[in-house]
Amino acid sequence: MFLTLGVTLHADSETPGVIESWAYDKGYALQISKPYKGEKLPSTSNFDFLIVMGGPQSPLNLDDAPYLIDEINFIKESIQQDKRILGFCLGAQLIGEALGARTERSPEKEVGVYPITLTNEGLKDPLLEGLSQNFLVIHWHNDMPGLLSSSALLGYSAGCPRQIVRYKPLVYGFQCHLEITLDGIQTMISAVPEDLNPSTFTQPQEELIAQDYASINSMMIHLLNKFVQLKR
């Protein structure tokens, strides 16, 4: 199967991470857009699979990032055209917004590597089936995606009740991250050191750098391989 991936970014410090190397290994084309730099979003006819990355912006403050309104409409159009869509962090929130589910503040800020727990629905989900009920992921957020009555909540953490949401059979939002590499973590630490201000679920720099990102990245690759094979 040949795929073209459309990837929208929201900050220079938040790259596709291991998703990019996975795409190149598979021979998939990668089309990256940076609307925060004024770049125009692509036509939805130009890609098969949309990945919406994280960023420091918040859908709760669209006046501070008005280009997100165009991106929300772009995601809505992609959903209407039955594209495969994955969103991470801000990307998950924007998917929710495109479907009418309002973003909310997470009960806790989370920055670090902490476990999430799959719900009973998550354990049966075709993308997540076969994973352990509890596993480590990367967190770097203050907000969380909204839910619809038709949404399936698949995973949660101690600090955030909405970590993985299935909005439609081929549309998933991950509040957590699995794509960020160790290099990416070091870049984010340098770019936004204030995010490491202490909180209940914020790890200090030394602890963050010492985590096993290779294992988390391997899980991301496993999920990407499953995702492109999912049936409508």
CATH class: Alpha Beta
Number of domains: 1
- The CATH topology is Rossmann fold
Radius of gyration: 16 Å
Beta-strand residue fraction: 25-35%
Which regions have little confidence, pLDDT < 50, spanning 5+ residues? Answer: none
Q: Could you spell the SSE succession in H and E letters?
A: EHEEHEHEHEEEEHEHH
First-residue to last-residue Cα separation: 15 Å
* CATH architecture annotation: 3-Layer(aba) Sandwich
Say how many strands there are. 10
Describe the structure.
Strand 1, helix 1 and strand 2 form a beta-alpha-beta unit. The protein has one domain: Rossmann fold. Strands 1, 2, 3, 4, 5, 6, 7, 8, 9 and 10 form a 10-stranded mixed β-sheet that branches. The protein is globular and about 45 Å long. Helices cover 29% and strands 26% of the residues. It contains 7 helices and 10 strands. By secondary structure, the chain is of the alpha/beta class.
List keywords for this structure.
Rossmann fold; alpha/beta; single chain; 232 residues; 7 helices; globular; 10-stranded mixed beta sheet
How is the secondary structure organized here?
Elements: E1 4-8, H1 18-26, E2 29-33, E3 49-52, H2 67-80, E4 84-88, H3 90-98, E5 104-118, H4 120-124, E6 134-144, E7 152-156, E8 164-168, E9 171-174, H5 182-191, E10 201-202, H6 205-209, H7 213-227
Parallel strand pairs: 1-2, 1-3, 3-4, 4-9, 5-10
Antiparallel strand pairs: 5-6, 5-7, 7-8, 8-9
In short:
The chain has 232 residues and is an alpha/beta fold. It has helices at 18-26, 67-80, 90-98, 120-124, 182-191, 205-209, 213-227; strands spanning 4-8, 29-33, 49-52, 84-88, 104-118, 134-144, 152-156, 164-168, 171-174, 201-202.
